[in-house]
Amino acid sequence: MLKKILFISLALFMMTGTAWARTIVFATDATWPPMEFVDANKQTVGFAVDYMTAAGKEAGFTPVFKSVAWDGIFAGLGAGKYDAICSSVSITEKRKKVMDFSEPYFTVRQALVVRNESNAKSLDALKGKRVGTQISTTGTFAVKRVKGVISKTYDEIGLAIEDLFNGRIEGVVCDDPVAAQYALTNEKYKKTLKISSIIKTAEAEYYGIAVKKGNKEVLDLVNKGIRAVKAKGLDKPILKKWIGQ
After folding, report:
1. Is the per-residue pLDDT at 167 higher than 50?
2. Which residues contact 134 (CB under 8 A, 6 or more apart)?
3. Structural domains in the chain, sorted by start
4. What's residue 203's pLDDT?
5. d(CA 234, CA 240)
6. In the predicted model, is pLDDT for residue 9 greater than 80?
């Protein structure tokens, strides 16, 4: 009987390649469209979700996405509440000191969003004005680098966009695909808001999957999946679906 069970299990594995797939729990702050967000059906969707799902199929792991608020997402990783973070986390030298990162899976830039009537073409033009960002993001770091600009942080980027829309602040800085989602395609905001500029930085900014320091098992699986997605061009239809041309 045991031999029969083993034979059936082996056959299933050979047919599907997923019978013994490792489950990886990814924390995600699903408030960052189009990268990761909750849709009308209350499902977590977006570019990163599709990307990691494709990576899992290639590398032999099953991704499970767990909704976690951004302000506690890194502490939860350190405490072992999940295996990794898939939440538009930019790879920075400071973060690399306390967590490990996968290979980059997306190149990102910081964009300045303002109301249509604004003439501000850069953060320097908003000195003395309040500019919103999501707390502890690279957008916040960019704003704080410009002397004279008043930084106002929010738990979610959508709250900052809403305040900009209602005239409570004069700008919002966030990742460019998110800025485009709100200012160019969102029916509520696209007639009122615009992207006025892309903030230039000395180095390119990349998203990576964050794992707890030393978690080589998860890191190796994720990297295997990312490499396969890139090598096979599986990222192209995902980009087209969520980001456009």
Report:
1. yes
2. 31, 70, 140, 153, 154, 155, 156, 157, 160, 174
3. 16-107+207-242 (3.40.190.10), 110-199 (3.40.190.10)
4. 83
5. 11
6. no
How does pLDDT run across 14-46, given as a tens digit for each residue? 444 444 679 999 999 999 999 999 999 999 999
Mean confidence (pLDDT) of the chain? 92
| CA atoms of 187 and 183, how far apart (whole Å) | 9
Asked whether the CA dihedral 166, 172, 178, 181 is positive or negative, the reply is positive
* 189 close to 182: Cβ distance less than 8 angstroms: yes
Taking the C-alpha atoms of residue 138 and residue 76, their distance in angstroms, rounded to an integer, is 20
- Report whether pLDDT(202) > 90: no
How far apart (Å, rounded) are the C-alpha atoms in residues 82 and 69?
13
How are beta strands 99-101 and 210-212 bridged, if at all? antiparallel
Reported as a single tens digit per residue, the pLDDT across 52-80 is: 999 999 999 999 999 999 999 999 999 99
